[in-house]
Design a protein that fits this description.
alpha/beta; 10 helices; seven-stranded mixed beta sheet
Length: 255
């Protein structure tokens, strides 16, 4: 190996080791407490076996007192966990999308799914708001930006420039802040082909886009991998729902 290639090799080894380290049971106490929190709904805890929240949160490196912008929080599975992890001195900004233009007139706004969190004093550090994803203004000076199983859908939003969106996430972060991306894996080499059909995305395409916004890939993990997923089924199909092959990436905004 040439001397010039040593730094690159060392970086690859560091990323691999980081992913392996969090597959063990060395979970910070504040993360373990968040997962064990008795106020979590049963519907959430029933998903823990597949989503592995303790190891995932430990890998993400989010700590008490930090502020987190959570993009497209869905029903709040990670919103509740993040709230307890960052604690009373921290903040979670749960940013739900506006209702789709093609949604039924009587369909509720996505943010309505988070109303139980808004009404629960246990999660007083959570602020829920609705954003127009194509022109979103993110909270500024946060420690982390988090998106789980949603990055692929950014490519399905009309008029959204995803790299520009990644740059907005970059600008929202403090120097040294992290961008955590979890998503359903598509076939290697497929790029953006399956984002609107199977709701999957090629991991390599995500890395390329996010790094083009100025981020550095710091670590990746196999925690959520499923080698039995053929990457050919829509993620909502019963055969793979809740059990898809997923990648877990931690990007860093340089100091």
């Amino acid at each position: 190996m040439s001397r010039s290639s040593l730094p690159a090799a060392a970086a690859l080894i560091a990323c691999a080791l980081a992913g392996m380290a969090w597959s063990a049971d060395k979970i910070p106490a504040y993360v373990a407490a968040a997962v064990a929190d008795k106020t979590r709904p049963e519907a959430d805890t029933q998903r823990d076996a597949d989503r592995k929240p303790a190891a995932t949160l430990a890998f993400a490196g989010i700590t008490p007192g930090q502020s987190v912008a959570e993009l497209i929080p869905g029903g709040g599975y990670y919103t509740r966990l993040l709230s307890v992890v960052v604690g009373p001195k921290g903040k979670v900004y749960a940013l739900a999308p506006l209702k789709r233009p093609d949604a039924a007139p009587d369909a509720p706004e996505p943010a309505a799914r988070l109303q139980p969190i808004v009404e629960d004093a246990h999660y007083a550090n959570v602020a829920v708001s609705s954003i127009r994803v194509a022109s979103a203004t993110l909270p500024q000076n946060v420690d982390a930006v988090w998106t789980s199983l949603n990055y692929h859908d950014f490519h399905n939003v009309k008029d959204l420039d995803v790299v520009a969106f990644d740059k907005a996430a970059f600008a929202a972060l403090k120097p040294g802040g992290s961008f955590i991306v979890i998503d359903h894996a598509a076939e290697a080499g497929s790029g953006l082909r399956d984002t609107g059909t199977l709701h999957r995305i090629d991991e390599a395409a995500v890395k390329q886009e996010v790094e083009s916004a100025g981020f550095k890939l710091e670590a990746e993990s196999d925690l959520l991998r499923n080698k039995d997923d053929a990457h050919t089924d829509k993620v909502f199909d019963s055969a793979v729902r809740g059990h898809t092959d997923q990648f877990l990436l931690r990007f860093r905004k340089p100091q």
